[in-house]
Every structure is written in C-alpha cells, then in structure tokens.
C-alpha cells in the first residue's frame, strides 16, 4: 500500500483524513482504488476523458508525474504520493 | 448606464461554473482559475467610441469592461500612457510600422502594475478589506504600497529578499510593511497562498486575482484606441505568469464583441529571459505542459516566475493567434535596453529589454513580417533596475572646469561629425 496525501479542499471526501493509503502498481491504479474507497474523489482529480485535471498536480516522492510517465508512472509500496492543487498567483 | 450590472460573475476558466463576485480565485470543483465574466449585451448599450473619447484620459475610460461594481476609488488617474511611433527603432530593426506602448511612465509607480492594482484595490474596498497584500517580484509591491498609501489602506508586500535595491526602496518609502522572503518568487507565492487562507486580507494576486488580472486589459484597450481603433497585426508582450499576454488578447477580442471594432486578424507573441523561460520553452517544443523552473537565473527578476500560473493559457493564446514565443540571454536584455534608450529615448527596465531583444529575434527569423504593424509592450521603468546595466553603459568622462580641457575632449568627436556646426561667433 502506498500513502497518498490529500489536499484540504478534497478532505471532505476522505472523512477529513490528510493521509490515506491506496493499492496499485501505477498512478492510474492508485486513482481507481482511491475513487472506490472515497466515491467522488476521482472526478475531482481527473476530467471526463480520464486525464489528470490541468490545475491538479500529482507528485510521487516530490516528482511531478507530468514529467515522469503521467498516469502510467509505476508506484512502489514505499512511495509517497501527493495530490496538490496548482498554486495560482503572481 | 443600464440597470443590469456589466460585470456579472466570476467564472471557472476550465469548467465554466459560475461563482459570486467575492474574494475567491479558484474553482471549488476542479481548481481552475476564476475569471471575471461580463454581460456584453448590456455593455454594448453603454459603450461606444464617442463615449470613451469623451471620458478622462485614464484606464477607467473603459469602465464597463473592468470588474468593479461602482466608480473606481483607487488609482483613478492610472493609465493612458503614450503609444510612441518608434521610427528610429523601426529602422534599426528593419520594419515598417513599429510602436512602443510606454508603460514606463504609468502613474504613480512607473510600471503596468498600477493598472492591475487600481482594479484590485478598488474592488478590495468594495468587498470591505482594510488590509491588502501581495506576493511580488518588485513592481507589484511598489504599486500596492503606493496605491494603498493614497487610499489609506494598510498593506503588506512580500518579496524575494534579493530584489533590486530600487524596487525595495520604492516599496519602503510608502510606509508599507515589506517582508523579504529567503527564496525565489515561487516560494513567496506559495507562502502568500497560505497567508491568504489564514488571515482575512485582500491579496491582490491571490484571492483578488480575478479582479487584479483584468486590469491588464486596459493596456490592450488603449493600444487599440491610440492606433485609431485598430488592432496591431503583432503585439510583443513580456511573460512572467503569462497573465498580461492573455489579457491583452482578451481586450482585443472584447472590443470586437461589444462592437467598438470589427474583428481583425492579430497575433500575440511572448517574450521571456532564457534564465527563466518555462513558457517559451514549452511553446518552442510544441507542448502545452509548462515545466517549472525551480531556480530562475536571470537579471530579469520581474519575469522570474518558475511556475507561471497562466502559462497554459498563454501558450493557447499564442497558438490560437498564430503567434510565437522567444527568449533571450541577459546580454541580449542589456542590448535591448540600450537599443530602446538610444533610438527612442525610453529607459526600460530589464523586462523591457527582454521584449525588445525577443522582438528583434522574431523579426530576424521572419516570424514577425517586416511590413506589418507591430506594438512592443514596455512595462516598467529602467530606474527600477539600474543594477542590471550599471556598468554596461559607460561612465562620465571627468575634466577640470577648463575650456581647454573640454575642447581637447571633444575635438576628435566634432571632427567626426559630418554636418558642419553652426557658427556661434556672430550670433
């Protein structure tokens, strides 16, 4: 199981849990597992076509998955995944 | 004026969900940025070339298309800076029709940021804020500090601790609370997002960003009016967050939407410094994903935003208008500053040097054709970033107060002048 950090605006869906665990060998599988555990979370993170929304960043051990293999990025049990809304400003 | 409000809602740029006109800036659903939405039919009934021309010469002559409810209360004299026909620079760049939109003389703090702050603080007052704040690379801090002072608002400005001295002094003098943050701008911005969530302050570029960003449109409106109600075929715009570029595009299209002008073809081009060029790099690669620059390294500090909030939209805008992006080295920035100063008598800050240098490259490579109209957006005054060229434009030659020494000094130079000097003997 990997740990996933949930940002404040999405914690309503995780019963206020800041860190949750999820099963999967890729980011895509992790997201599917998360949506099963916390219904509604999936559509907040991915759009209708299943792509990660433009203003949502997913980091795996501090690396943005957009610069890895996106949703196909492999995940190990020891990895820490963070879901972070993009910082708007400037 | 009609009873229908011209400024109707905030709207998510991603999913289109509508929000009330409050101090909020991101969509609760998909985290997309919120943008001001207008009732263009109502505006059509109120705005016209004649109406605009009859109003005072400030950015507020386009009042219907700016997102506040009542009359502006902060920065009522901002804007309507000169659009300079730059024939000498045009000749050097080998183009036919070139203009400089000269926001180095914007009121009161000598950069285009007075436009965005005027809107943000007018709106902050409407929303009842007593304390206003910003994250800034310098120019915004100057403008928030000055405009807050004149409006009697308390202000906090947060800046990277290594900014140019002039930009720091230009904030401190207004009695604002200046906080230097150890780290690049993006860290300042991140901290401000946290502060904005915790304190009930109006952060002009965080929770007031939808209002703030719209102020940039006034630069585009002015360009069109000053060109005789024409959109320039090409506009070259410096990019930090990318917001200014998207808003100048919005201004050109809104004028067509409300019937001020007919639709005209135009391209917008973006300029960055190579040492922090996430948008131009993505654009050149043909991708829309902007890779953050964790450690910007350039003298162009006002453009040094490694994670540009509007990078994606800037790329879409350049693509949609068949524009392009370019970046230039720090040496080219200095050359750009000097070229503009020597040909047009306009002293721009490093971002202006970037715009000139990138325009030169775009022209040389044919991406901007030599026979089409071009506007360069010059956004801040050179006195703010003197360090950048301090040792690169020579030094005065010092002599004794003696006519003989002066004549010795200029003898060769006078001989080199082709045109004979008028005699002063008998005049």
Can you tell me about this structure?
The complex is a heterodimer of chains A (about 90) and B (about 425). Chain A is α+β, with helices and mostly antiparallel strands and about 90 residues long. Chain A has one domain: Beta-grasp domain (Ubiquitin-like (UB roll), Roll), CATH 3.10.20.30. Chain A is built from 2 helices and 5 strands, in the order ββααβββ. Chain A has a 5-stranded mixed β-sheet with strand order 2-1-5-3-4, with helices on one face. Chain B has about 425 residues and is α/β, with parallel strands linked by helices. Chain B has 2 domains: about 5-75 and about 115-215, Rossmann fold (3-Layer(aba) Sandwich); about 85-110 and about 215-390, Rossmann fold (3-Layer(aba) Sandwich). Chain B has helices spanning about 40-45, 50-55, 85-95, 115-125, 140-150, 165-170, 185-200, 210-215, 215-225, 245-255, 280-285, 310-320, 330-345, 350-365, 405-415, and strands spanning about 5-10, 20, 35-40, 85, 100, 130-135, 155-160, 175-180, 200-205, 235-240, 265-275, 325-330, 375-380. In chain B, the strands form 3 sheets. A 6-stranded mixed β-sheet of chain B has the order 4-5-13-10-11-12, sandwiched between helices. A 4-stranded parallel β-sheet of chain B has the order 8-7-6-9. In chain B, α3 crosses α13 and α10 crosses α12 (about 310-320). Chain B is globular and about 75 Å long. The termini of chain B are far apart. The interface of A and B includes residues 64 and 90 of A.
